[in-house]
Amino acid sequence: MQNLNVGILQLDQVWQDKQANFERVEQWLSNKPELDLLLLPEMFHTGFSMDVKLADNWSNSEGLHFLQKLSHRLNTAIYTSLMVSDGSFYFNRGVFVQPSGQLHIYDKRKLFGLGGEEGLFTAGRHEQILEFKGWKINLQICYDLRFPELIRNRVNTLNEAAYDVLLYVANWPDRRISHWDSLLGARAIENQCFVLACNRVGTDMNNLGYCGHSQVIDMLGKKILEPTAQEGIFMATLDAKLLKEARKQLPFLKDA
């Protein structure tokens, strides 16, 4: 396991305008930052819209094609989510795209009833843990954060943890940002893992404001990347040795 250089693009998304969001992402990444992994906010090319007419057809998704080309050009894995139609169902689908073209998907399991998501979208049924550069990564989306039972870490007979990193991509409004801050720290501590969380900034057409607070948190709950309300790309390094030593000195997971 090597150290992992990660980036978070805390974006002011353009409401329901896919092309404009493609252009904004490209502008922020024009200097080609050297990263292993990049996170973009939830529903990156539409914002958190419930207009399912905007859903990409999964068999030919323009959002996915954009991410695949971007990942290849930057030589960087990318995780975000997008609204898709797959058969007769709609999903808030997380996509982890690698430069090689390899793709992992995760369908959001906890749909946001307060925003009407559960009435339009189908909930995912399975967790998604993947391996990337020696790290085991667990994919999550926004409202999943409130449900710790979804991602309880555990060890196998070889005393190896199920995962090392939790990824959250979100459109989490500023009126509940204190919950976001508290829950992210709790998920890192209770699962002895790194947490990477990407939220948006700006105001959407529902007049909801977003203040970002994207973060990188280590397994002891220490913030490696401090929250900010500014739009921009923020970078950090995940220290593999630090993770191994912390789990060795504090072997809490074996008691779970």
Characterization of the model:
By secondary structure, this protein is of the alpha/beta class. The chain has one domain: Nitrilase/N-carbamoyl-D-aminoacid amidohydrolase (4-Layer Sandwich). The chain contains 4 helices and 15 strands. Strands 1, 2, 3, 4, 5, 6 and 15 form a 7-stranded mixed β-sheet that branches. The longest helix has 15 residues. The mean pLDDT is 96.
Keywords:
6-stranded mixed sheet; 7-stranded mixed sheet; 4 helices; single chain; 19% helix; Nitrilase/N-carbamoyl-D-aminoacid amidohydrolase; globular
Overall radius of gyration: 17 Å
What characterizes the major β-sheet? 7 strands, mixed
Question: Number of helical segments?
Answer: 4
The strand count comes to 15
CATH architecture designation: 4-Layer Sandwich
Which CATH class is shown?
Answer: Alpha Beta
Run of helices and strands: EHEEHEEEEEEHEEEEEEH
Uncertain regions spanning at least 5 consecutive residues: none
| Beta-strand content bin | 25-35%
Query: What portion of residues is helical?
Result: 10-25%
CATH superfamily label? Carbon-nitrogen hydrolase
Structural class: alpha/beta
Topology record:
Blueprint: E1 4-10, H1 18-28, E2 37-39, E3 56-57, H2 62-74, E4 77-86, E5 89-97, E6 103-107, E7 129-132, E8 135-141, E9 165-169, H3 177-191, E10 194-198, E11 201-203, E12 209-211, E13 215-217, E14 223-225, E15 232-238, H4 240-249
Parallel strand pairs: 1-2, 2-4, 3-4, 8-9, 9-10
Antiparallel strand pairs: 1-15, 4-5, 5-6, 7-8, 10-13, 11-12, 13-14
